[in-house]
Amino acid sequence: MPRFAANLSMLYPELEFLDRFEAAARDGFGAVEYLFPYAWEASEIAARLKANGLRQVLFNAGPGDWDSGERGLACLPGREDDFRRAVEQALTYAQALECPRIHVMAGLVPAGSSRELLRATYVANLRYAAALAAKQGVDLLMEPINTRDIPGFFLNCQDDAHRLIAEIGAVNVKVQFDLYHCQVVEGDVATKIRQYLPTGQVGHFQIAGVPQRHEPDLGELNYPYLFGVIDEVAAMCGWQGWVGCEYRPARGSEHGGTSAGLDWLRRWKQPHSNSRS
């Protein structure tokens, strides 16, 4: 069975952020992820993890000025110093939280920019950051994101992400394979899991229902089947990563909050009801 991590940036919005750790543990999650930890002291987050028996499996490096619309720095020429500071800050938090993965957002394509220059900047920045992260045993993740949710995002397709990994040439740079984004952009999700998971280049999965990014049992993707594909391929290749639940809860808004919408997880955990057809 895949191991599921609660995304605390999206799940439990009815609670304050630091109270979401306890809620996730109570609902049976063994790990958490979220976008950014930097508004809180690392020691405070570490205490919540320890108190609730949770593992921190992923968070993002700083994306630039998020409130003004920036969505990453890695591909932006002239922002190399900002990118390096963001990576250094993320690695400091990763050490304190014992987190083995950091997602480095690519960024938005500036108007009139050269794709070749953006790609060269992205590759150079990831090579630099990967060397720093390797000293701590940390993997850096790149995530293809659909341009409906983030118009103008530099990296959109699984194939391109894996070509970039080959070009960067660092063993600790991997792909954050979000099944929601993949379905929106390109589809053929099960085939891409079978194609790329055995390569060792997938560091993390994320899930959400398509098209509205709600619970994974709402929408057009057959997640029980896809979980079965992940299990099958992981068993063959020895993959032992996590599946992040990065969705906006639609159920339980009035009674029970996020927990009321976790029937999909409870059903999957029942040993005789995890259909894979």
Please specify the SSE layout and strand pairing.
Blueprint: E1 3-7, H1 20-26, E2 31-33, H2 42-51, E3 55-60, H3 80-97, E4 101-103, H4 115-134, E5 139-142, H5 158-168, E6 173-178, H6 179-185, H7 189-196, E7 202-207, H8 223-237, E8 242-245, H9 263-269
Parallel strand pairs: 1-2, 1-8, 2-3, 3-4, 4-5, 5-6, 6-7, 7-8
Instruction: Give the proportion of residues in helices.
Output: 25-40%
CATH topology, by name, is TIM Barrel
* Superfamily (CATH H level) name: Divalent-metal-dependent TIM barrel enzymes
How many distinct domains?
1
Summed over residues and divided by their number, the pLDDT gives a mean of 95
Shape: globular
Distance separating the two termini: 15 Å
Order of helices and strands: EHEHEHEHEHEHHEHEH
CATH architecture annotation: Alpha-Beta Barrel
SS class: alpha/beta
Low-pLDDT ranges = 272-277
Q: Total helix count?
A: 9
How much of the polypeptide forms β-strand, as a percent range?
5-15%
Question: Mind describing the biggest β-sheet?
Answer: 8 strands, parallel, barrel
- Compute the gyration radius: what is it? 18 Å
CATH class: Alpha Beta
